Amino acid sequence: MKILAIESSCDETACAVVEDGTRVLSNVVATQIDAHRLYGGVVPEIASRMHSESIYAVAQKALEDANCTLNDTDAVAVTYAPGLIGALLVGISFAKGLAMAAGKPLIPVHHIAGHIAANYISHSDLKPPYLCLVISGGNTNIVHVEDYTKFTVLGRTRDDAAGEALDKAARMIGFEYPGGKYIDEAAKKGDSTAFSFPHPKVAGREFDFSFSGLKTAVVNLVHNAQQRGEELSQCDIAASYQKTVCDILVQKTMLAADRYGFKKLSVVGGVSANSGVRSAMEKACGERGIKLYLPELKYCGDNAAMIGCQAYYDHLAGRRADESLNGIATLPLDSIYGE
Ligand code: KG4
Question: What spacing in Å lies between the alpha carbon of 166 and ligand 1's midpoint?
Fold first, then answer.
């Protein structure tokens, strides 16, 4: 079954053709990062307009790369939640038009479920049940993946997402948006013991995260140094900050793995590209005999191949959208895939 998948929830316009949930026939991503960098973050109005400008060409290229036409596909899938409403609506409206014109079913896909599915593309041996850590720019979740379309969220962030925490710290120490990857590069040259940052706890919710205190700590560190006329090493701050974020992610994830006895861990989302996260997870999993699954770098950040992959399983579960499909800005994963 060939699915044309569309993703426009944030600042990447992406289309892909995916066969039977794992064979990626094409994967086209048009990033808007250069446009948003000027403002230090994603500007929703600009994001929607840029999706509108590029979605036709991106879809056309995805079909061309897959060597097929819309008529050769069996369904159209689209991310409908969570995300920026204006941005989501561009993809949804475009997908509805295609599905209607070609007489194909329309499959609504949850963005986080898409990130989770990204690891099925590279790892044919990864099958539920397993534990998954989703770490992206907008979300941080520890998920029990019971089946391809059945998820229980064990932990979530109470405030900032892991990627947001990295991007905000990066901005404070002088890196461009989105700064996660610059922190990653700088951390390799810095001393991770140079500064100590807090490990915030969430009362009564041992698997939940809180990153906002960490961000405040870096703001205070930089401001205090500025007031004293001191210059701090960007690389040392990056290394110390990244180490703290990694420690928190590893500690909570391993707590959940140990508690429930998981022997398979999947780590997905934009921040799963981080070299510190990858090596810290490898070490912790190695010590416990847990098999770790990491996506190829091209499937860590937002893309439509992962949406096409999840859409296949959603299709098998009978999920369909009708012509009234709408975008939803906030939609917990287990509110739709919990049953
Ligand atoms: O998954 P994604 O593309 O978008 C969302 O679904 O939110 O994730 C984007 C996030 C950004 O915060 C970006 O800074 C972060 O992923 N990111 C990284 C790295 N590459 C991307 N963070 C740390 N290290 C990296 N190498």
Answer: 9
* Domain CATH for 137: 3.30.420.40
Same domain, 228 and 167: yes
Q: What is the pTM of this model?
A: 0.97
Q: Which residues, listed in sequence order, are joined to residue 3 by a DSSP beta bridge?
A: 18, 75
Tell me the per-residue pLDDT of 197-246, one tens digit each, with 9 for 90 and over: 999 888 889 999 999 999 899 999 999 999 999 999 999 999 999 999 99
CA 269–ligand 1 middle distance (angstroms): 7
Tell whether ligand 1 has an atom less than 6 A from the beta carbon of residue 157.
no
Do the beta carbons of residue 100 and residue 119 sit within 8 Å? no
- Name the residue at shortest CA distance from atom 21 of ligand 1: 270
Domain interval for residue 324: 2-116+301-337
- Residue 11: both structure tokens together: 């600042």
Closest CA to 80 of 319, 339, 338: 319
